[in-house]
Specification:
- The structure holds 2 protein chains of 2 kinds.
- By secondary structure, chain A is an alpha/beta fold.
- Chain A has 2 domains: 196 residues, Rossmann fold (3-Layer(aba) Sandwich); 145 residues, 3-Layer(aba) Sandwich (Rossmann fold).
- Chain A contains 13 helices and 14 strands.
- In chain A, the strands form 3 sheets. Chain A has a 7-stranded mixed β-sheet with strand order 7-6-8-9-10-13-14, with helices on both faces.
- The longest helix of chain A has 30 residues.
- By secondary structure, chain B is mostly helical.
- Chain B has a single domain, classed as Orthogonal Bundle (ABC transporter involved in vitamin B12 uptake, BtuC), CATH 1.10.3470.
- Helices cover 74% and strands 4% of the residues of chain B.
- Chain B has 13 helices and 4 strands.
- In chain B, helix 2 packs parallel to helix 5.
- The chains are: A alpha/beta, B mainly alpha.
- The interface between A and B is large, with 30 and 41 residues.
């Protein structure tokens, strides 16, 4: 009993000491605001371990490159920029826990992240609470911005724009008039297929059939027999690469050689592995542009290669642009407060105000819920069994 | 409407027969074990899956060593089929020995749970190994027997359209028919088969007639699992890509086929499997036409299972449940 009480006292005193220390630290920082050499941290939160670590790492490195290029500018303003990478492990729980850490570190004034919408959505609730502005390089789920949070922004297109963009390309560029739609009965697949179907009908195409398949099955010959007998010009598939690959392969085995099209669910090297040679003449939409198409993108890729000795991934340049946008907002906030350390709220406001920023891969201008007005959807085509496909076109809103 | 259904009928028949053949052989494994032990061996779908993985792993290995290019493809396939079925056969025996035999006198439900446990174990074991070796649990084998054929049904009558299929479809159907004839002969004409039938009828009396019951049960598991594993290889060759979860849905449907044919009856399982495959393929291709666009292909399983329910209402013992009295 005595020992227990002693422990309690000890714990309580330790706690109060900690609280006092915390007060001291924050008091000190408030006092010396605006002094030279003050540290401003920008966090990145992406998966740095696990299955999608390659993509997460590439976003982090892109952001790091942007931050280091801007260091000089901020030193002139009297601040020292610092990158604080966090690993969200593509796990919502880990993302939220990190977001709490970010929120409680007062020197962090912004976040670049995440890779996964599923992680981004709960984590951004925490950012909103602490008013930390977030710029997402890769999240496409509609819900990310539809909640109307003041701190949440993204520079890529929304999911619900992929279907219409695909329809636009299929009808205007590929000249498809009769289209057969297949979807996998999941929220993603049905949503994508419905959006495509509606846009295609509005554009005057005839939908010959709208059929569902079951995720996990391998034999789609029944549905393909319908395709065979109805003779469409194009098949649109709303679903993921596993079923997509089988579907395409079995269609080619039946002698169906018309183009197939799908969303970013088909954007995977496994699709090519499954479908093999059959993958030719398959189109997919993606929110990520092929950076090597433009001279800015090529410059970026060579800078990136020189600095990190790695090749750029699809989202590297988006990490770079997200960080650049965030720093532009930060700069404006610092100037707006006459060189004093701006509040997070102020930074978030300034980021949202950005209307005309030219990045490496995309132009950025946020609307009132944080979507990028200039975001585009890119169409890729597989002409040979090699991943990734070749960028064929881009569709803007 | 009828004209359109007729039009696609040849294609539906070919595809349905291929899918049904796979259901039929897996159904055999369920029905044999049920016949002898009255146990629904839910791990059987996973043995099929394991067979598919072993087969593809061997094919990849052989491609890597250049054997596949050196020998005729059919010979390579036979070699892979034999090795895989021996391996999965022993796997089935091992599962019976470890997971079912200690529970043989326990209530039926306990063994059923044990079977479900084995099935999860196998799924994740295969997933773990594949992911560890290849970094991705979806496995694509080397493409074999990819030559395309068209049977010119349109030359018989213009109301039919041509049916397209691959060499692998023919190989699949021929192998399955051979396996079924072989099994039927084994069970009905050999001494071992007679012993199996005897154990299925009455385990205790059979043991009194100097039949080694444990040995016969092991043999049943060996044959069922060997057939299942071989079908896994054929499945992988036909569809190209496999993952550790293919056994679940296929196993469920094969089990349904076994019930449809009358569980415990070998010929019933064959007929049930082929019937289910044909029904499913027919529904996927024509349901939209039949219902005027209200139901699409995604309701193919509903259609097939509705027929199953109707059959079982009028014939609860299954299609072949009574026609043959002995069960194995």
């Amino acid at each position: 009993m005595g020992i227990k009480r002693g422990l309690k006292v000890l714990a309580a005193s330790a706690l109060s000491l900690g609280l006092l220390a915390g007060c001291n630290a924050s008091g000190g920082s408030g006092g010396s605001g605006g002094g030279s050499g003050k540290v401003i941290k920008i966090a990145t939160q992406t998966p740095l371990s696990g299955g999608s670590a390659t993509l997460g790492e590439s976003i982090k490195l892109g952001a790091q490159l942007a931050l280091e290029e801007n260091k000089k500018k901020f030193e002139d303003l009297g601040y020292k920029l610092q990158l604080q990478p966090y690993d969200d492990q593509a796990d919502p729980k880990k993302g939220v826990a990190n977001a709490q850490l970010i929120g409680s570190d007062k020197s962090i004034l912004g976040v670049v992240g995440h890779l996964n919408s599923g992680v981004s959505i709960p984590s951004s609730e925490v950012y909103e609470k602490y008013k930390v502005p977030m710029v997402s390089p890769a999240n496409t789920a509609t819900e990310v911005t539809d909640r109307g949070l003041k701190t949440v922004n993204r520079i890529v297109a929304r999911d619900d724009f992929q279907g219409p963009a695909g329809a636009d390309f299929a009808i205007n560029k590929l000249g498809a008039k009769k289209i057969f739609v297949i979807q996998d009965k999941t929220a993603y697949g049905t949503g994508l297929a419905d959006a495509f179907k509606k846009a295609a009908e509005d554009a005057g195409a005839e939908i010959l059939g709208y059929e569902g398949i079951t995720v996990g099955e391998k034999d789609f010959n029944g549905v393909l027999t319908q395709v065979l007998s109805k003779k469409p010009d194009l098949v649109f598939f709303g679903g993921l690469y596993t079923e997509g690959g089988q579907l395409i392969r079995q269609a080619r085995d039946k002698g169906i050689s018309i183009p197939f099209m799908g969303g970013d669910g088909l954007d995977s090297s496994t699709l090519v592995e499954i479908a093999g040679d059959a993958v030719e003449n398959v189109y997919y939409t993606s929110v990520a542009a092929d950076a090597s198409k433009t001279s800015e993108g090529q410059d970026f890729a060579s800078k990136y290669k020189e600095k990190f000795n790695k090749n750029v991934e699809s989202y590297s340049a988006y990490g770079y642009d997200s960080m650049s946008v965030l720093l532009k907002g930060l700069e404006a906030a610092i100037k707006g407060s006459d060189g004093e350390l701006p509040s997070r709220e102020k930074v978030a406001e300034e980021v949202r105000k950005i209307q005309d920023f030219q990045g490496v891969v995309t132009k950025v201008g946020f609307d009132d819920i944080g979507d990028n007005k200039f975001a585009k959807v890119y169409i890729y085509k597989f002409s040979e069994p090699k991943y990734p496909g070749v960028q064929e076109g881009e569709i803007s809103k | 409407m009828v004209a359109e259904i007729l039009q696609s009928l040849p294609q539906v028949l070919v595809d349905g027969l291929a899918l049904g053949a796979i259901y039929a052989v897996i159904a055999l494994g369920y029905t044999m074990v049920y016949g002898i032990l009255e146990l629904i061996n839910f791990a059987h779908g996973e043995i099929f899956m394991a067979g598919a993985f072993i087969g593809v792993a061997m094919l990849i290995l052989m491609t890597g060593m250049g054997w596949l290019a050196a020998m005729p493809a059919v010979l390579a396939l036979i070699l892979v089929l034999v090795v895989t079925s021996i391996l999965t056969g022993f796997m089935g025996v091992g599962i019976e020995r470890m997971a079912y035999r200690p529970l043989r006198n326990a209530p039926k439900l306990i063994t059923l749970i044990s079977a479900i446990g084995v099935s999860f174990l196998l799924q994740d074991l295969v997933r773990f190994i594949t992911e560890y070796k290849r970094g991705n649990y979806i496995l694509t084998g080397p493409s074999m027997f990819n030559e395309q054929f068209a049977i010119k049904f349109s030359s018989i009558s213009s109301s039919f359209s041509d049916a397209f299929f691959k060499t692998s479809t023919i190989i699949l159907i021929i192998s399955v028919v051979l396996m079924m004839i072989g099994l039927d002969f084994f069970v009905n004409k050999t001494k071992w088969g007679m012993a199996m039938r005897a154990v299925a009828q009455d385990r205790e009396t059979a043991s009194l007639m100097s039949i080694n019951v444990n040995k016969i049960i092991s043999l049943t598991f060996f044959i069922g699992s060997a057939l299942g594993g071989a079908t896994g290889v054929l499945f992988a060759v036909q569809y190209g890509t496999i993952d550790p979860y293919i056994g679940f849905i296929l196993g469920l449907k094969a089990f349904t086929a076994a019930v449809l044919g009358g569980i415990g009856n070998i010929r019933g399982a064959m007929a049930g499997g082929i019937m289910l495959g044909l029904l499913e393929m027919f529904a996927a291709a024509n349901l939209q036409l039949l219902t005027g666009g209200i139901f699409g292909a995604e309701y193919k399983d509903v259609f097939a299972f509705a027929i199953l329910i109707i059959v079982l209402i009028f014939k609860p013992e299954g299609l072949f449940g009574k026609a043959v009295t002995e069960k194995v």
